[in-house]
Amino acid sequence: MPTSSDETNSVPSWTIRPARGGQSLEGAVRPTAYDAEWMPLRQSWRDAPEDRFRPGWARVRWDSEQLHVEAFFEGGDARNTATRLNERTWESGDVCEVFVHSIGASYYVEVHVTPENQRLQVRLPWYADRIGPPAGPPIESFMVHDPSWVQTSVGRYADGWIAHAVLPANVILPGPGKLRPDAILRLAVCRYDYRGDTNPVLSSTALLSTPRFHRWMEWHRAVLRAGE
After folding, report:
1. Is the predicted pLDDT of residue 225 greater than 60, yes or no?
2. Which of 19, 99, 162, 169 has its CA 20 to 30 A from that of 222?
3. What is the distance between the alpha carbons of residues 127 and 142, in angstroms, rounded to a whole number?
4. Mean of pLDDT over the chain
5. How far apart are CA 134 and CA 131, in angstroms?
6. 151-164, pLDDT tens digit by residue?
7. 3-state helix, strand, coil in the chain (%, to 5)
8. Distance between CA 124 and CA 135 in Å, rounded?
9. What does the pLDDT read at residue 27?
10. Domains of the chain by range and CATH?
């Protein structure tokens, strides 16, 4: 099995700034502008976005106890029929997907948030792109059923929606401890946008070479910085 060497040196960096003023879960509010902290979602595997593509942006902040991930997606018609924790949300409608790996950990975290604030949360073995149908165990084997494992909130608008996920340090890190300045994470924020159709439009902050969100070697090299 390969080791978790620093392949992150060859992918784009994402500078993660500290959370401001004790940023809370109630922060799922549409931004008034998209500055350099907001990373656009793209279809980097295509020469040009498909006609049905709708823009989205993501921002990540941190403090010693948790990582805050926010994403705003255009599209006021977003919806998902999931009604409880850990349904297969990517099959039932629009979803924001967050992927985080702490360098050296034997697992990574995947969290889905729907426009109705239903959630899927998974703790997958590292290199999990090699498992799942048809070659490995189903994703249900790795679901985390504790509803307090992560926290999420959403905001709905006429022209879009925003998701806010809070991932505690003890969910991300392989042992007890806190997030610290200059720590490096692998990270990506992705989207399923069904637009009322059965064929979702996919996009990601990561510069993926194919539309497969689990391509960890192409996720961002996210660096936690101490100052503004």
Report:
1. yes
2. 162
3. 13
4. 89
5. 8
6. 999 999 999 999 99
7. 10, 40, 50
8. 15
9. 54
10. 7-20+38-224 (2.60.40.1190)
